[in-house]
Design goal:
CATH topology of the largest domain: Spore Coat Polysaccharide Biosynthesis Protein SpsA, Chain A
Oligomer: single chain
Radius of gyration: 22 Å
Number of domains: 2
Number of strands: 10
Strand order of the largest sheet: 3-2-1-4-8-6-9
Length: 376
């Protein structure tokens, strides 16, 4: 133990207080924004929409989830599936759906032994094939939560809006990994949607994202990030979205659900690949994104040191309790908003360990170096 009058304890207390204030700012300003958000009432608009899905060896998922997209309750839409060099039964499944669903269009990419490509090329093929201005993106392993998914996402477009951010969660399942994946997904959504609602959009997720076709070509597609395996969603938003051209729609009828990683190894690969794009974010965004987990680590470390030394422990314990109350209120409200059951009991544990897990993933993404062309 450190002597009670030691200046180090006072320094730790000051550091603890500063980190508490930073944490409170993030929760009350950014993270509470999605829970409190109520989209403005707008007249029902039913502009034509092109849904784009890129699929590589996704036969089973196309069989299970594509009908939910094709059977949306919306008067004017098309669904473009880019069948990207698939070697499974995707061809036959899509051929059967082409007969059954008139709204379906399929663009096939065949394998070239010389030219290799990433998901962005498939995305570009789908965008080129789209006949409508409003583009709505999801993945082959995603299912809309309702038949009103297209309507809800499309309704947020107006004369100024060029992006609409949606929520793409994961199917609930058994086990600790599933709960952590859904916790991580929800907290990331709270972060990017909260920042967007506060006028600082920095990313979206390709599982549920919409933007204008004209914007894509005006901004020269994916620009300098074309070669990266990831970033068809977050980097495009990061480069081109602003407070004036973005809207959010995350009512429950607009959610999509995806198949989560089945084991830890798959999750590590997926998460590491996703984080390869983070270093390309705008500097302001990177600073804000680092501020919360860094201050959280400092908060917990200073708390442990102060409690061990019993230094003004009632004040220290009270601040920890107050932060926990703010966290729980924010988390419970957002959990209801995003319809994520079963993760509340584990929230305090995940809150402590997630900064270290994400730091390990980020270090892995740096070691990986330049991303390869594998996009799934």
């Amino acid at each position: 133990m450190i002597h009670e009058g030691h200046p180090l304890l006072l320094a730790l207390l000051i550091l603890f207080g500063i980190s508490f204030l930073i944490q409170a700012l993030y929760y009350l300003y950014y993270y509470l924004a999605p829970a409190r958000f109520r989209p403005p009432e707008a007249p029902v608009k039913r502009e034509p929409v092109s849904v784009i899905i890129c699929a590589r060896n996704e036969g089973e998922n196309l069989r299970n989830f594509l009908p939910a997209v094709l059977e949306q309750d919306y008067p004017d839409f098309e669904v473009i599936v880019v069948n990207d060099c698939s070697e499974d039964d995707s061809d036959s499944i899509l051929a059967g759906y082409l007969i059954k669903y008139k709204r379906l269009k399929v663009s096939n990419i065949t394998r070239d032994p010389i030219f290799t490509h990433n998901k962005k090329f498939a995305q570009f093929i789908g965008i080129k094939a789209a006949k409508n201005e409003f583009l709505l993106f999801t993945d082959a392993d995603c299912r809309p939560e309702s038949s009103l998914w297209i309507e809800k996402m499309a309704s947020q477009f107006d004369e100024m809006t060029e992006f609409v951010l949606g929520y793409g969660g994961y199917f609930a399942g058994k086990g600790l990994l599933n709960r952590y994946i859904r916790y991580d997904c929800m907290t990331i959504a709270v972060q990017y949607l909260g920042m967007a609602l506060r006028g600082m959009p920095y990313m979206g997720v390709g599982r549920n994202l919409a933007y204008r076709k004209s914007l894509f070509f005006e901004r020269k597609g994916f620009g300098p990030y074309t070669h990266l395996a990831s970033g068809d969603d977050d980097l495009f938003v990061n480069s081109n979205a602003s407070a004036g051209n973005i809207a959010a729609e995350f009512g429950k009828e607009s959610h999509t659900r995806s198949v989560p990683a089945k084991n830890t190894s798959d999750y590590i690969k997926q998460k590491t690949r996703h984080l390869t794009t983070a270093k390309h974010y705008k500097t302001t965004h990177k600073i804000i994104l680092l501020g919360e987990p860094v201050s959280r680590i400092i908060f917990y470390a200073a708390f442990i040191a102060l409690i061990i030394n019993l230094y003004v422990w009632p004040v220290v314990a009270g601040m920890l309790l107050l932060r926990l109350v703010i966290q729980l209120i924010t988390f419970i409200l957002n959990r209801e908003k995003f319809n994520e059951p079963g993760i509340l009991p584990l929230f305090p544990i995940f809150d402590v360990i997630s900064p270290f897990i994400n730091a390990a993933f980020f270090a892995g993404s740096i070691r990986e170096g330049r991303a390869n062309t594998k996009w799934k």
